[in-house]
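The data layer described in this paper is built around a simple, fixed record for each protein. We quote a single record here, exactly as it is kept in our systems:
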Amino acid sequence: MNILFVCTGNTCRSPMAEALLKEKMPEANVQSAGIFAGRDSRANNNAVEAMQERGIQLNHQSQPVTDSLLQWSDVVLTMTAKHKQSMIMDFPEYQDKYYTFKEYVSEADKKVWNELKKAYADYEEKRMDFIRNNQSNMNHAQLEQQLQDYLNEDITQIVMLESRLISYDIPDPFGGNLETYQATLDELDENIDLLIKKIKK
C-alpha cells in the first residue's frame, strides 16, 4: 500500500508521521507532502529535535502535493478536516483516497457515524414527505415554519450525535516550543500504531 501523509507546509506533522511509520514499519511505502509546501525546505528544527529524542533522524526535504503523487498513492491521510476539504476542491478526481489520519485509523466513531447516516436519511425522508403532503395547502413561509417545528426533534438528535464525534484534527505545532512538538509527536505516534494494526489486518 502506498501511503501519502499531507499537512500544510510539509515541514512538521506530515514528515514526522512519514518518519515514524518508516521507523516502525521499514517495508512501508510512504511519502509526505504539503498543500502549500515549497520544494526542498528542511523540516522544522523543533520537529527534528523531538524526533531525535526518540532516536529517529528526520532528514527531510519538503514537496508540494502533485497529481503524480496522488496517482502513486493508494491512500492519502491528511492532518485535519480542512486539509481534506482543500484536497477535494483542488484534486477532486482522487477524493476516494482522502481521509483525515485519525478518521482512517479510528474504530471509535464507526457506531456514531452509522447512527448519523441513518438520522440524516430519516430526516431527509421525513422532510420530503412533509413537503409533498403539505405544499399545496400552505404558502412558502408557512411551510418553512411548520417544517421546522415538525423536524425539530430530528435536528436535535443529529446535533447530539455530531457532538459525540471526536475531533479528527491533529493541531499544527508550527510556532510552538519543543514541548508542543513533543505533544504532536505523541499524538502522531499513537495513531501510527493504529495505522500499522490496520495495515497488518
In short: The mean pLDDT is 94.
